[in-house]
Amino acid sequence: MNNKKALRKTGILGGTFDPIHNGHIQMALTAAKEYGLDEVWLMPNGSPPHKNDRLITAKPSERLAMTQLAIEDCRQEMGEKCPLVLCDYEIKRRRTSYSYETMEHFNDLYPDREFYFIIGADSLMDLTLWMEPERLVKTCILLAAVRSGKDERALDEKIREYSSVLPGCDIRLLHMPQIDVSATEIRQRLKENLPVDHLIPASVNAYIKKHPSLYA
Question: Which residues pair with 9 in a beta bridge?
Answer without folding.
Answer: 114
